[in-house]
Amino acid sequence: MADEQAQKRPPPRASRRKRRGHSSASSNTASAGALDPAIDASVSETSAPRRRAVKSVRQLDPEAFKQVDSMIGSFAQRRFGQLMPKVAEGFFGNASEDERKHATLQQAFALYFVYGYRDAQGLRVIDMFSRFGLKLDREQKRVLEACLRACQCVCVIESKNPANKQLQCRDLLRGVPMTVLDRGAFDLFEPGDVLIAYMFTVGDMWRPLGMVTKVARGRTKALSQGLSQLAQRQGFAPSQLADRRPAQVFWTAIRIAERTLTAKL
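The chain above was modelled as a monomer; its predicted structure follows.
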């Protein structure tokens, strides 16, 4: 009877130490086949070079942009028409009569008047337009919000991406990286060239407004020296120059520039 009970008795269980060892070996075997997701991510970040991510954001509707641009122009003429000649006199300064009448430079003045010139309170025409209370649809509001972010940029092209027509740049005055999207600029600018324009952002993408000025690579040293001298004369840090003295920055660049072109939205 005792023999029968011994035969029916289950075999001795493995010790806890043995079971722990077995469990550890199993997990080690599994780890050899696949990394833990958190570890995998850490390894990927360490081994792969980091690239500046650019947010994918829907760009502005060209028709809505034209509508808002027309509204801004009408507002400037209607409300500040008498002020424009005085501002133009300061903008053109020592320019020749031919330069004052030149269509491209007239366009540069129009951009300066709306986005660069500031009154005694530091307000621009675009700021006052936004307070005017016009009823805009959804797309027009997106355009206005982008225009309110517009500022003058002086950026050197560092690389070009043919796949998406983007220019990787660095703002020479502010020292910040920029990703610029403009079909005309992409075709005509090469690494080392400098692009000067009023620009706005949509997501992380910078888009030029209207006129774009190009300073070729071989002339960028002269441009850098000219801007440094301008900052010293005006008593500003270089990072403040485009916001505080945009007209002088423009004329410093235009005297050295190779060409100008119109931005393509």
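Confidence is low (pLDDT under 50) at residues 1-7, 12-50.
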